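Entry 12.
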Amino acid sequence: MKQITSIQNPYIKSLVQLQDKAKARKQSGTFLMEGKREISIAVKGGYQIETVLFLPEICSETEARQLDDSAELIAINKEVYQKLAYRDTTEGILAVAKTKSMQLSDLKLSKNPLILVAEAPEKPGNIGALLRTADAANLDAVIIANPKSDLYNPNIVRSSVGCLFTNQIATGTTSEIIAFLKERNINFYCATLQNSTSYHTQDYTTPTALVVGTEATGLTEEWRIAATQNIIIPMQGEIDSMNVSVAAAILIFEAKRQRGF
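Predicted 3D structure (tokens):
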């Protein structure tokens, strides 16, 4: 079994780039993750694990091999682990995995899909929370319009607590996604302040996409004009918006309620 004990090792340097640079992830088609739960969920979600790196003082070779016995196994020391690990809490294990295609054409939808669309979400924490909500509701897919962030950003991997790997995810431009939904006769309801009706008055029991925008600027006009119906969550306090992941959860679980969960 291979061992690496220097942070100057070229392979370790390349892994640091995977953590830090979206360009490196895109060029290599790989990303770095850490934690037993995340790696296990990724394997279950069909991600191909290339390499598992483990710190023997914390994680045994047997434990590491059990996660994916087809991956290359590399023992590392504490210095190398601390260079690569992203989280403060430690489990002594990391993995290099291949990224997946996130094309709209790759999505496999049910006959009566329920989809979340988020336009240009910026904060990794919000994206992670949206993915956790989508997993909790067992949505058919999450589609990111005009993405601002690489979805394999370690902050997103971490904040999604593995739900990056449990959801079907696709990305595209607003125009591409609107065309995709219309071609499949999927009604889409856009959460926006303008020309809206209360969200609970709509019927989400047919093929449905729920569309949310950023907290700062909301959805672009293209979505608002094309929508089956613009919807709003009635606000009774001083502010006129709430966290995007909270708003999405309210809409999603109203749709789930109508569908009998």
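Annotation: The radius of gyration is 20 Å. The longest strand covers residues 49-54.
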